[in-house]
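for ur thesis appendix - TolC family protein. copy paste whatever u need, i formatted it the way the template wanted (i think)
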Amino acid sequence: MHKYIILAMFISLSYVVQAQDHLTLEQCREKALEHDQNIKSAQADLAINVASHKMSKRAMLPQFDFSASYTYMNDPQVMDVPSWQLPNMDGTPSGVLFTGLYKELTYHNMYDGGIDFSLPIYLGGKLRNYVKMSSYGIGISEQNVENTKENLVLEVDQKYWALVSLKENLLVIQKSVNLLEDVVRETQNRFEVGIVTKNEVLKTQVELNNAKLALIQMKDNIHLAKMALNQSIGNSILDEIAIADSVIIPDTNPVSINEIERVASNRKELKMLEGQVGITSVDEKIARADYMPQLVSFANYGFQNPDHKAEDKTELTWVAGVSLSVPIFHWGEKGLALEKKKLVTKKAQLSYDKAKEGIILQIQQSAFNLNESLVKISFTKASLAQADENLKLEMNRLNQGVVTTTDVLDAQVQWQRANSDFISAKVNYKINQSKYLKTIGQLDI
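the 3d part is after this line
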């Protein structure tokens, strides 16, 4: 019996340890990239465009087709001319008998078949431009896959560091609760010997209750943050997870942007828009090809019954030729279509230029935010050191009986706020760092 109890305890302990595996940021990124449906959808779009590119290239090759048909006629048509006497020049009977004519016009069994061959010789460059257009489609799809991955990684980074921030703040609030419990005990002791009033005891008890309530709320927020992270990395939303990282002071210098035009051109969004401009320009060339002659060659080798003499006899034959089509006049329809394509190309170029300006501004803003985060870390670190020293001083004074509980509570609030600001500054730096790398197209995926 004891063996079963020990085995059950071992299994339970193993499950708890497994459930509490500490996930690093890199592991969360990998799990999210494997799970995300948007990435799988973008990859499917890429596969579709690759297939379209292959099809457009094969449209330039010769085409071979086989076709056949069979018809059975129960009652074939015949031409039956009766016999009659041939007339003389004056119309009188000549006595010469025409024996008549009986000819089958159709037959019981009629069939034909053959192999058809066709090869486009010149279509105004349409096929070549279709190949080029499909290659632009592949490029856009590839950039879309990478951009979708970057967006997901940035989302995971934000949720991960938000959870880190909440856990760090939970420790601060727990320390505040412990400190306030000491203050409540000290104040209660002073009340019992008549040094302070009951109001001082109640005041410290209220602050302790507020801290405990904040502790409960922080735990709830951590639970919600874990649910959000689980959703992004493909876990069950109620899975218990633990994270490995904690925010540390970054040893980093301020960033500066050089060659911002080149950096902006590396953004996946701009490359996608650039590909769209390429597609519209190629589409314009395809519309221009409608003005060109269309030359196609063809050939057929096959069999038929009845044969070309309309006799019930199978015959093999072949034909070959070329087809030429030259557009002459269509009431300006082709010109309007070409003008429409030009406007679409111009619109795509304007969208590209506008997006590039916005991305350049975004890069500058992200660099400013990242550098500002470094400054805030320095400021909040100094404030935390001052608040920590002030709290120690006020606690010593309280123990010596030279200050009131109000002074200690004020110092505790300042200390907790300074800790929270310091944690927020470090977490904001981490998030702004990911955003900055995203804006310059260097976010690891």
